[in-house]
Structures are given as structure tokens and as C-alpha cells.
Amino acid sequence: MSASADSFLQRVWYDRHAQWLSLVLLPLSWLFGAVVTCRRLAYRIGLLPRVRVARPVVVIGNVTVGGTGKTPFTIWLATLLQAQGRRVGIVLRGYGGNSSHWPRDVSSDSAPEEVGDEAVLLASRTGAIVVAGPDRVAAAQRAIERGAEIVLSDDGLQHYRLARDREIVVIDGRRGVGNRRLLPAGPLREPVSRLTQADLRVISWRDGSARSLTPVPATIQACARLAEAWALVGGETRPVETFRGSRVHAVAAIGHPQQFFAALQELGIEVAPHALPDHARLTAADISFPDALPVLMTEKDAVKSRAIADQRHWAVRMDVMVTEQDAAAVQAMLDRLG
Fold it and tell me: What is the reported pLDDT for 21?
């Protein structure tokens, strides 16, 4: 999808002054909803088979399209499990990867154009067993073959063929569920009622200021904060706050790039924004500008820019903060897995 088309849909779905435009798309939403309902029913009654693998499976997903913070939360969850000595496997589709064979084992050195940018990011940040592939069952089985004791399925909520032991739904705290309509009239992949069926609901805030969100039943809240920046050339690290008062270029090819730009601006950084479609393959022209200003980008974009970066380019790490009480709720859910 082009950046302009994505921007238009974001406005229709989330700007209450423009939501009337979605009315013309309602017939398509009804058709989409019928397909979603029939598909889920087919899995529930056994017309379409679910496959249970040999280790517990925890799905982390969302009911809306676009970024909600599920990947940072997956990183946090994997780190929590690893701190307990458990070998974690992470499986995901490998969106944007053009590999000729699947599933694929992923490491921090894997080529993102083959396995997808999020897969390389997860491998780099967690050191977990990461396997990418459109067939989540095959990917999970491969992760278990490699020694995974628990499998996290990133963005796997609607992949019902892989049986799951727990479901975690991540909701964007700022945008919520938009106009509450199904695609394409709204941002929903499934009806809002699907939220109540998950084992855990996570409201994800990108600015670190958790607030109540009445329309969505939340269980815990997670604050995703920009932490430090690291140079793509040379590896130097520095707090992202050291860019405060400076003008920078900011590049983001993620589900909701404005959140990245806003987070930088809230730190007092003057941002020249450059939004690109989610998962876009970056070229030198996308990240190079006719001046010497620093270029800040998301970690997901950084893994695609390693071969074309220079001294101006910095990746900004995002960390998830969860209160002790909410972390205990997550732990209690995991403990029940046995």
C-alpha cells in the first residue's frame, strides 16, 4: 500500500471528523465480516483442523491492522521468560521476506529481504530461537526441534491453524480500535468482541503516560519508551535524549510512523519526518538527505539499512516498561501453562 493511501485510510478509521467516509465501504466490511465469522466457526467445529505442537504456544497479536506495539511487547515477554531460564522460540510470518523455502531459521545476521525485517529484529534483540514462515505450524515445530520450551507466535492471533494455550491481544492506547468497523471501512481484522475472548489484553502506550481507555477492556498496561540510540556505523551508543534541541531526519517504515515521530518530538528533538509504507524495502535514497543532519530510524528499519548506512544514521531502541503488579499478572498467566 502506498503512503498516501495508508494516510487516507488512517484518517477515515481514526479521525472522527472523517469517519463518515467509511460508510461507502460498509458493504465490503459486511462481506469481510461474514468471511471472518465463517472461517473462525470452521476452526471451532473442526471443519478446518487445528494442530497442537509439543510445547506450549502463546500468541501475541492484535485485532486491528497496523502497529500496536506487539513486537516490543513480544521482546519484553521473551526476555521475561529467558530470565527464568526457559528456552524461548519465536515464530512469525516473515512478512516481506522473499525466501524460496520456508520455514527459515533466523539470526541477527540473516538478510531481512529473505526472512523479513521483524524476524531479524526479534533475533537481534532477544537472542531467542526465531523461525520465520507463512506456515506457523511448521515454524513452531522447527523452533521446538531447535530446543524451544515455549513458543511465542508474533502477530498470530488470526492464524487459527496453530492451536494456542494462551492469547495476548495488544491494543494501541492512543488509537484504540478506531471507528470500531471491520476492514476496509475500519481497521478491525475481527469484531471488537474478540478482545474479551483473549487471556490477556495489553494497552500499549508509546509516550509512557498510561491513561484509561474506556472502550477497550484492558488487563494490563505497557509503556513503550525510546531508550538509547546506536550508530549503524561504528556501533556507538548514546541516550536518545542527547539529540534534544537538535534537528534530525526521522525515518519510519512501520505501521504507524507518526508515533515514532511524536515520541522523538516529545523529547524535545526537532524532527523532519519521512514516513514510508510498513515493511518498505529501504534504498540509499530513502535514508540519505542533502545535509549532514543525523538520521534517526526505528530498529526495524535499521536492520534493513546496515549495508547502506553511514556515520549519520542512528537506530533508536524501544523498551517496554511494565509495572510490578502487571508483570505479576503476566507471570500468573504463564505459570498456569505448567
Answer: 86
pLDDT on residue 208: 46
Q: What is the 3-state secondary structure (H, E, C) of the chain?
A: CCHHHHHHHHHHHHCCCCHHHHHHHHHHHHHHHHHHHHHHHHHHHCCCCCECCCCCEEEEECCECCCCCHHHHHHHHHHHHHHCCCCEEEEECCCCCCCCCCCEEECCCCCHHHHCHHHHHHHHHHCCEEEECCCHHHHHHHHHHCCCCEEEEECCCCCCCECCCEEEEEEECCCCCCCCCECCCCCECCCHHHHHHCCEEEEEECCCCCCCCCCCCCCEEEEEEEEEEEECCCCCEEEHHHHCCCEEEEEECCCCHHHHHHHHHHCCCEEEEEECCCCCCCCHHHHCCCCCCCEEEEHHHHCCCCCCCCCCEEEEEEEEECCHHHHHHHHHHHHCCC
Q: Is the domain 57-222+322-335 a CATH 1.20.58 member?
A: no
Residue in the structure block whose three cell numbers are 486491528:
64
CA-to-CA distance for 257 and 152, rounded, in angstroms? Answer: 25
Which pLDDT value is given to residue 19?
Answer: 79
- Residue 110 is predicted with a pLDDT of 98
**Which pLDDT does position 98 carry in this prediction?**
95
> The dihedral of CA 32, 176, 164, 75: what is its sign?
positive
Measured CA to CA, the distance from residue 295 to residue 173 in angstroms comes to: 27
CA end-to-end span of the chain: 42
Residue ranges per domain, the chain? Answer: 57-222+322-335, 225-319
Q: pLDDT, tens digit, for every residue of 102-121?
A: 999 999 999 999 999 999 99
pTM for the model: 0.93
Nearest 10 degrees: CA dihedral of 41, 46, 49, 53?
100
